[in-house]
Amino acid sequence: MADTKNSPRNQSFYQRHGWGKPDILHCRSSVFATIIPILTFSTIFTSIICALYIVYGIDLTLPGSLVGTVSVVVGLLLAFRTNHAYDRYYEGRKLFQSLCTLARNTARILWVDVDERSKRDHEDKITYIKLLLAYVIATKHHLRLEFGTNHEDFEGLLPKGYQRTKFEGNAGQENTILGSGSTEDPNHPDNIVNIQNSDPEVTVHTDEANESTGLLRNQQHPVSYIKDTFRTLVGVRNSQHDVDVNWGTAEPQMSLPMEIVFHLETYFNALGREKRIELSYRLYVALDQLIDILGNLERISNTPIPAAYRIHLKQAVTLYVWVLPFTLVNMLGWFTIPVIFIVSFILFGVEAIGSEIEDPFGYDRNDLPLDEYCKDLEAEVKYLYKYLPTGQSELHH
Predict the structure, then answer these.
(1) Distance of alpha carbon 328 from its chain centroid, rounded?
(2) Which of 141, 190, 301, 304 is the most buried (most CB within 10 A)?
(3) 379 with 283, same domain?
(4) Residue 293 and residue 95 in contact, taking contact as beta carbons nearer than 8 Å
(5) What are the backbone angles phi and psi of residue 364, rounded to the nearest 5°?
(6) Does 225 lie in the same domain as 129?
(7) Residues in a beta bridge with 176
(8) Is 185 helix (H, G, I), strand (E, B) or coil?
């Protein structure tokens, strides 16, 4: 077996850096490039304040006690933001590792515990072990919103003739990948009677309801009308009617990981019917866990930090930094400029770190190396079915 201990990834993973080079001077994984614009603007703004106070004698100073209490609040906001982002990052790492571990265990069960009564059974085991690995890789692409099966890392893993039945957006589901059924959909809109138009009373009732609603809105209290108008202008939704969702128009579709799970379960059902494995419930438990992990990963990927919190935090940090020059210029003079630069670098950098790591499934240098995890798992799975004996090894001697 090839030893992966000395692989480049493991060397970089286990290497420990001190306070010297490269960590302190490292910029490639730093958020410095992200905050350059706001750092530049804050420095220019501070320079203008210093020039007005020192050169032109314009007194713009503010008492230092003004920012004392605000400093604590800003610090708490930044701490919460960064901790929450790292929790998402670390949970994503734990979940993906659980996914890889579950794939290892399930592959082991299939390889060792499933009886082989023919060469075809042996080939099927390899096929579905590869499909199990394809599930992990499909989950990686699913989290990155990369749809379809035309990815390099799927090569050799999907069965021959495997194709998505209908690809629109995330996935389509008209036929199965192991057989072709009818593409004619009895639930297609063309085959459904338009219920609303078939019942004039319903249509009339709906129109009357709309007219009544409009009349009530026109007759509402002036203060309430002004309040609702202001909320509309600033983008605040008042009710479900303000949410633009076309209910009932969703196309039938399914993610690739879920489609693979269905085919794995079909295979597991066949194993149970043919009594080729004892304690087959372990396989069904594994499938449930695969779906549960997928759902938790989707929860992290699809649940961003609320925009209201993110926007307010950026505004609060910016205002805090821009008020600081007015409280320091009378004591530090021109030294206020480098001091504000350092403060800005620290505060804006901490906020940028939260934004950088809150979604850990992408391609950024600070994201989780999902490609490496999948590559390591692929190497283990290949070693399993190429070199390790099965429970029916005598068939292959």
Answers:
(1) 42
(2) 141
(3) yes
(4) yes
(5) -65, 155
(6) no
(7) 179
(8) coil
**Which tokens hold the place of 150?**
């035309």
Domain assignment present for residue 43? The answer is no
Which range of residues forms the domain containing residue 369?
75-173+253-308+359-397
- 397 residues of the chain, pLDDT tens digit each: 445 555 545 555 445 555 555 677 777 788 999 999 999 999 999 999 999 999 999 998 998 888 888 999 999 999 999 999 999 999 999 999 999 999 999 999 999 999 999 999 999 999 999 999 999 999 999 999 999 899 999 999 988 767 655 544 444 333 334 433 333 443 333 333 333 343 433 333 344 444 444 434 445 555 555 555 555 555 555 555 555 667 777 788 889 999 999 999 999 999 999 999 888 899 999 999 999 999 999 999 999 889 999 999 999 999 999 999 999 999 999 999 999 999 999 999 999 999 999 999 999 999 999 999 999 999 999 999 999 988 665 444 4
For residue 35, give the 3-state DSSP assignment: helix
Q: How far apart, in whole angstroms, are the C-alpha atoms of residue 268 and residue 128?
A: 10
Please give the model's pTM, rounded to 2 decimal places: 0.76
Total number of domains in the chain:
2
Residues 301 and 395 in one domain: yes
Whether the Cβ atoms of residue 130 and residue 144 lie closer than 8 Å to each other = no
215 within a domain of the structure (yes/no): yes
